From TrEMBL:
Taxonomic classification: Bacteria, Pseudomonadati, Verrucomicrobiota, Opitutia, Puniceicoccales
Alphabetized UniProt keyword annotations: Transferase
Record bears the keyword Chaperone: no
Superkingdom to which the source organism belongs: Bacteria
Designated name of the protein: 3-deoxy-D-arabinoheptulosonate-7-phosphate synthase
Residues of the DAHP synthetase I/KDSA domain: 21-259
Keyword Transferase set for record: yes
Gene Ontology MF: a single term: transferase activity
Amino acid sequence: LLDIRSELKNHRVSFGGVELGKELLLIGGHCTVDPKEPNKYFETAAALKEVGIHALRGGVWKPRTNPYSYQGDVKALDILMEASARTGLPVNAEVMDEEQLDIALDAGVHMLQVGTRNALNYSLLRQIGQKVAGRDTVVLLKRGRHMGPVNEFISAAEYIVTFGNPNVVLCPRGTLPGLEGYRNHPDECITPLLKERTWAPVVADPSHAVGKAMYVESCSMAAVAYGADGLCIESNVDPKNGLGDDPKQAITPEAFGALAKKCRMIWDMR
Ligand code: PEP
Ligand code: MN
């Protein structure tokens, strides 16, 4: 295990025109792309591009804790790809099974997300490694909600790598049990531990770690201070009316721009 460290140590992952490690990668967008509100997503995408974000995120299929919550809709994929075409930015979307993986790859999704709930789904990790092999597609692997910070997390990434796709990015996003007041237990502090053991870049997700818009900036700054190569943040021009997590944790594109400025200053101090 942990060959991820040695065999590919000179491998560099690039996404959104950024070689990870050279410049802070910024990914932003809605938790969930609302198929009934395409213009909202286009508006967010344009506003994020305006403040210098490198790539868009947007959930198509959603892993919801509550089975009665909105579960996603493949129609959202067209909106996501249209936003990519309009802005020229690549896009990230989560896939939860092989069927979704095939659909996302056919549509040309640039970054596949493995969510926290599937971080231990070894058959999905293997499928992603195999099907993405030989493509430029990047995989953002979220840390499992109960996953040990080092061995278990890196081993999950190793599944993707060993089955064929070296373009893997590790994403701390908080763990359970949560820290009272936050949504999860923020875990941006694991980055130095990951960096010691692997060459894989780290893109932190402060949105799901803290779960409240007002704490996203401080968590982002901490993540960069701890050595993150990038940030993936939920952002919406109209957070209050967004689907999924946005009403609680999404920040406006304007706030994202302000946060990015501060984070770049921290980056420059490293
Ligand atoms: C998300 O990115 O919207 C999401 C569901 O993430 P996680 O798997 O980290 O909860
Ligand atoms: Mn979300």
